Amino acid sequence: MADETVNAGGEVAVEGGAPEAEGRGRGRGRGGRDGNRAGGRDGNRGRRDGNRNQNAEEGGEELIEKLVHINRVSKTVKGGKRFGFAALVVVGDGKGRAGFGHGKAREVPEAIQKATAAAKRAMVRVPLKEGRTLHHDGAGHFGAGRVNVRSAPQGTGIIAGGPMRAVFESLGVADVVTKSVGTSNPYNMIRATFEALTEQTSPKSVAQRRGKKIADLLRRGGSSAVEAEADAAAVVE
């Protein structure tokens, strides 16, 4: 039995009370470990949920992904040939934004994933007339590839082939006429097409740059004042 002594402050001190202190220490230790374990699980789970929600918010926009081309390459090494893949992907939201990217990897899915991520980072906005066609004609070239793009009336459709069709479908263009001259290399065709698209301007941007009204610019094209006002009111971007 432990001996009790009264100290100067009137508190009871127990001699030989090490087992109780040790037990209390173990209890606190277990509580600390359990608390840390539970806190760690809850904290990690909270961080994972937060990342998932953040990714869901970032990826909430539905994008149109078009796989344009896959190229298989090989490298001769000491043990034989080592194969790899290069993917070209076009991404767009169907509302005037599009981009392209390419990725390389040892496997096809990983190459497509890299190309898609690069395309999302390089998306550009192109002004569209009535949300279906281009505002004016344009031309672009890259290397030996040259392309011409022209606006078209409603119901024309996408008159384009190969990689250029993928660009306009992902961009959201419904009526356009195109012509590609020179190389058939999909990389050069895509770059030339985007060069032509980035040169597109809208009446709204031109009016703001020149300090004029949209109706004044449209009236110079030969239309009447009433028609120019109606067309200016219909210009969205």
The shape is: elongated
Share of residues in strands: 25-35%
Main sheet summary: 4 strands, antiparallel
Instruction: Indicate the CATH class of the largest domain.
Output: Alpha Beta
Provide a descriptive summary of the structure in words.
With 237 residues, this protein is α+β, with helices and mostly antiparallel strands. The protein has 3 domains: 17-50; 64-124, Double Stranded RNA Binding Domain; 138-234, Ribosomal Protein S5, domain 2 (2-Layer Sandwich). The protein contains 7 helices and 10 strands. It has helices spanning 18-58, 108-121, 163-171, 186-198, 203-210, 214-219, 225-234, and strands spanning 4-6, 12-14, 64-77, 80-92, 97-105, 124-125, 138-142, 145-151, 158-159, 176-182. The strands form 3 sheets. It has a 4-stranded antiparallel sheet. Strands 7-8-10-9 form a 4-stranded mixed sheet. It has a two-stranded antiparallel ribbon with strand order 1-2. Residues 16-59 have low confidence and may be disordered.
Features of this protein?
Double Stranded RNA Binding Domain; Ribosomal Protein S5, domain 2; 3 domains; four-stranded antiparallel β-sheet; 7 helices; 10 strands; 27% strand; elongated
Note the topology:
Elements: E1 4-6, E2 12-14, H1 18-58, E3 64-77, E4 80-92, E5 97-105, H2 108-121, E6 124-125, E7 138-142, E8 145-151, E9 158-159, H3 163-171, E10 176-182, H4 186-198, H5 203-210, H6 214-219, H7 225-234
Parallel strand pairs: 9-10
Antiparallel strand pairs: 1-2, 3-4, 4-5, 5-6, 7-8, 8-10
